[in-house]
Each structure stands twice: as C-alpha cells, then as structure tokens.
Description:
The chain is α+β, with helices and mostly antiparallel strands. The protein has 2 domains: about 5-20 and about 55-110 and about 265-285, no CATH class; about 125-255, Nucleotidyltransferase, domain 5 (2-Layer Sandwich), CATH 3.30.420. Helix content is about 40%, strand content about 15%. The protein contains 11 helices and 10 strands. It has helices at about 5-20, 65-80, 85-90, 95-110, 165-175, 190-195, 220-235, 240-255, 265-275, 280-285, 295-304, and strands spanning about 35, 40-45, 50, 125-130, 135, 140, 145-150, 155-160, 185, 200-205. The strands form 3 sheets. The protein has a 5-stranded mixed beta sheet, sandwiched between helices. It has a 3-stranded antiparallel beta sheet with strand order 1-2-3, with no helix packed on it. A two-stranded antiparallel sheet has the order 5-6. A hairpin with a 4-residue loop joins strand 7 (about 145-150) and strand 8 (about 155-160). Helix 2 (about 65-80) crosses helix 4 (about 95-110), helix 2 (about 65-80) crosses helix 9 and helix 7 (about 220-235) crosses helix 8 (about 240-255). The relative contact order is 0.13.
Amino acid sequence: MKAFRSEDYCRKYFEKIRFADGDYCPHCRHGKINRFSDGMRYRCASCKRDFTIKTGTLFGESKIPLKKWFIAIFLLTQSKKGISSVSLAKFVGVSQKTAWFMDHRIREALKQNDGQLFGDAGIVEADETYVGGKHRRKHGFQKKAVIFGMIERGGLVKAFHVPHRGTEMLLPKIKEHISPKARIMTDEAKVYQKLPRFGYTHGSVKHGKRRWVYKDINTNSIESFWALFKRGYHGTHHWMSKKHLQRYIDECVFRFNMRTNTPDVVFLEIAKRIANSGKLSYKALTYEKGNKEKGSAWAQIKTA
Ligand SMILES: [Zn+2]
C-alpha cells in the first residue's frame, strides 16, 4: 500500500508499462495522443476519441481506482493458497460483487501461454488428478473433473481441465506441450504406454510394485504440484463450477511458475499482461450463451 500510495502514482506506473513501446490509441492504434491537463484522460490525434489508461485493458472502463486493482493483484498473487472473493472484498474495500469481478479479470491475465513448454532434452512428468464430484444439496451431483498436468523437473508446470482422460484427449496435449526430445515419466496408465510410438522416451512408475523411486523414474514433482493445487482448492474455494475451474488452475500454475521471483517482479509481470490485454465483458463471464452452468459462480457467492 505504501508502494501504491496515490491514484496518480499508480496511473503513472501503469502508463510507463502500457506505453513502454511508445504511445498509442487503443481505438485506432494511432501513435500520436494528447494528454489532458487533468492527467487522467488522453485524446487520439487521429480519431479524436478520448480514453483513459484503463481503456482497452482487462481493467476496462470500470470506476474502480487503479490503487484498488493493484492491491487486489498483490493479494491474489502473494497468498500461497489464493484468496476468496469474500476476503478480497474485505481487504480491498469493495462490494463482494465488485471483488468477484476484479478477481476474474485479474485471473484472465494469469492464463497459461500456448506453445511448447519443454524445449530441451529434460525430464517431464505427466499425470492426471481429479477434483470435485461431491454430492451437494444446492448444486446436485457433479462428476469429478479431470485435470491433466505436465511438469519439467525443477522447472515450469502446465495444467488443463480436460473432459476425460482418454488417449485422444491426453496425447494431443502431450504433443502440443512437450518437446519430442524430452523423457516423460508417468504412472502405468495405458494411455502413456503409447508414448514411444510418438518418439518419446518413456518411463512409467509401478505404484503397485513399490518401484516408484527406482532411479529417476518417479512422478514426485507433479504430485507435489497437485498437493499444492488441492490445498488451495479445498482450503479457499470449497466448491467451484467446472466452468471456472480452468481459471483457478491457471492461477495456481502462474503462482507455481513464478515461485522463485520476488513480489515486485511477479507484480510487474501481471501489470504488463493487463496493459497488453483485450477487453473481457462482465456479461461474457456470467451469462455465456448456451452454458449450462450460467451464473453459477455468482450464485455461489450469493449463497456463501
Ligand atoms: Zn485513435
């Protein structure tokens, strides 16, 4: 809070990041903009439209001060197990509805990147885990959700909510994210036995025969990540709809992958992502067309 003491200071901080490669208009991308004397607004020299430093970013046109956004970002990324929107509302000083909105906007910036994660001939562990599936009075029975994860030993993790754990689901993910040069460690599930056919060197753990720590064949790294994820899942969020599960996974992955960085580096990374983000409407978050679980996360807050 000391670092972001005033709204003016926050705006200047964000302006530096947003226009790092030079000024531009978020409406038409023109490179010449004029600043109003109030320091709050800009006008494009080409299309003549006005905008603020938040226009065209995940912060959107919200009336929420940058200072509150920054406190929320800090809290969301520095608490080990994440933070519920109920607690976020209390700490930031906004309504629960606003906190939920902020929470989801910030998480949007924590999304995992596309592309291959494991470039060189390292060891990658791949595994699935399951969450949810409890019978709940208010929400009815929900099948367990499958999460598929890949981790480079001593390095980065990627994880995805997948509809099922079949070959046609997991193999494309592996091919997309793991370099063919990597050695892959898994459990003895059938799907992974096909890996050598795709050119991967594969070692599988035989849990039943207690050979899981035989030489370097083990899945300890990915299991540590699952343990961390589940502590957050059960400890903070209690229940979450499948629709929002990927966002929570992304958040956990982000925190894990940034774990060796200092808070200011983590903060800067998110601020950069938000400064370069597009818009995400509140409507799209709550009432996605044809989504069976529409509004369910909001319903969760109302009943909390
Ligand atoms: Zn313009």
